[in-house]
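> Could you send the 4-hydroxythreonine-4-phosphate dehydrogenase prediction when you get a chance?

Sure thing. Input:
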Amino acid sequence: MTPILAVTSGEPAGIGPDICLDLAFADLPCRCVVLGDKDLLRRRAAALGKEVVLRDFQAGRPSEKPEKGVLDVYHIPLNAACEAGRLNPANADYVLQLLDTAYQGISDGLFAAMVTAPLHKGVINEGMAGGGFFSGHTEYLAEKSGTPQVVMMLAGGGLRVALVTTHLPLKDIAAAVTQPLVESVARILHHDLKHKFGIATPRILVTGLNPHAGEGGHLGHEEIDIIIPALENLQAEGIDAKGPYPADTVFQPFMLKNGDAVLAMYHDQGLPTLKYAGFGQGVNITLGLPFVRTSVDHGTALDLAGSGKADSGSLMVAVETAWEMVSKGKTD
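Output:
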């Protein structure tokens, strides 16, 4: 059987359903099934003028290649009515059910990987049955799979950038960057570059935290006290992690040719360059999970939902990347 990727359609009021419909016409390297409400997809296709055949997903149906104009749909019904561009908290549990079903399918061997369209964290927290707090795809999937630590990596424009810290206020970053954290993130990055991307000897370029990588302690001591000792420990383990390099020079071509990924200390240190190089064609990859999960590099874009203006490029790259990881991946 051809491996199948599960594609969750995300927030129903956003552009997730719109861009998922484009999978029916794409030259895909693999077979995909979209998880979502079939009637919602049918209505959105009609509104967008897209002639798509929505076929009920059948797990045992052999298919060597996707059929143009046909979209396999694993039907999961909405909880409440949905209008493009208008959030409805009553559908919060529907969005979570998409993730739960994809995860269960991976656990059961039905799906080879998960690709996720964007969701809206605010409306999920507003509408979750029984309360609780939803902080995002990454944390939710980590908790479901019992994964103690995950790493956010974005790829696009010929770059791979992983982050030591993710969504933190700037004032909290220096305290959050510790030697154990730098080491553990680098180990996960090394492991997944090797075992999920098939890179035999991954090369990691590590940034400093401060301007000019601290300039020998004149612009901060985090490099001397934290990052350099971390790199020494990693190198002693056989991990090719070099640095710390100034973030304003590490993204130059002559530097990047010596690395397979850049490890940046915080979100806005590493991602602006990557998004400039490949926005709309980038992919968000969760490292550390016991399965492959990729995602688009954009949000729900409620103002574009149902308008026909949504760009599905990032979703296509997310599918291609997930397939690459499934194909090249190695077992531990």
